[in-house]
Amino acid sequence: MRDLSGTLLEAEQVKPSVTPYVSVYLSKMEYNPPFQVVAGTPLRIHTLARESGGRLWACYKCSDHSEISYSDDDGENWTDDTDFSTGNLLNDIAIAVDSSDNLHAFYELLGSGTSRMRYRMRSAAGVWGSVVTISIPGGYSPGTIKGGPDIVVDSSDNVYLVWQDSYLFEQGGKIWTYGRIAYKKKTAGGSWSSTAWVGNVAYPEDLPSLAIDTTDTLHMFYQDADISNWAYKSKTISGSWTSPLAIGSVQARYGALVCDASGDVHAVWTDQVDSGTGILYCKRDAVTGWGDEEVVADIAVQHWVSISVNPSAEPTVSWTHTTNHIYLRKKTAGVWGETQDIGAPVWGYDEPYVPQISAYYPIIDGKHTNLAKVGVAILSRKAANSVHFWKTDDLAWE
Hints:
Low-confidence stretches: 1-43
CATH topology of the domain at 22-31 and 137-397: Neuraminidase
Shape: globular
Distance between the termini: 29 Å
Mean pLDDT: 77
Structural class: mainly beta
Number of strands: 33
CATH architecture of the domain at 22-31 and 137-397: 6 Propeller
Helix content: under 10%
């Protein structure tokens, strides 16, 4: 790792082994071209979730619909949930599970006008509820920029949504539009708050990543053109969103964050390092604030990074490289271990999205059901009709 002075420190070599990937069955996934990426494609942070009984859920984008699948054997075999269907081209989707094992899905539909954000809940009994259209903030004209959904639940099973929506304004006699981060809350009782803007009215915002801590304070990482390429905000239960804090350099891009059992925030993002584009990490202590930036990878990487923590607050970072491989690096007892190459995609395409399962809530019977006690679980998106679930062979839960 490296401190702010730029000194590179030697890391202890800790090498976990991994199992071969398990392919998720996707009979209708047809990318043409591969990774049919839409402008403003989000980070796909929360695409894996786990029930208290061990059932794993995965969500992903298909060419003509969205898909949600589940596994009852820790990811060895997967089954499509045929009761969930968007009926339109999906841009992206995020999921979360609450303490009653209800599954919450937040997603965007293309081809459905300017109000494209949708929410739907599946009860623990296996019944999907009605589709809820998530409106834009009141008083603003709708635009066509949408996407970047993320979702978390708190200690009381309230649901929080963030996404990029359109903001239209007039300047110089012309109508301009750009993306801004919007926010909405659904209580455990089912009532919805008004949709509100989170950020600055004067500059574009994009790619929100959301996490929640032990006090139910929300923490958000996102792209903010006002202060830098990446920024951080937080919001207490009854408070307002804080002013943006610039993270990294003006080259910072594509970040993610998680919260641990001490209320600390662990953030990771791509940024400028000595040899080009690399990966930086920083922890925000709940008491003392942000610490030094640390270099996780000092090599050219692909765009997307992800991070998880275990109940002992040890972070693991995952990312992809221009070699088309997926990489992991874990910090144990304050020391970054060896970078692990867990394999190349069998079809030879890039794998830019490598989200890990990591959500502080729910806590059921004193156990974090969505934080792996040991090991790592990753969902990766691929072309050639397959999505892969990866796990280290020591994966275990509380």
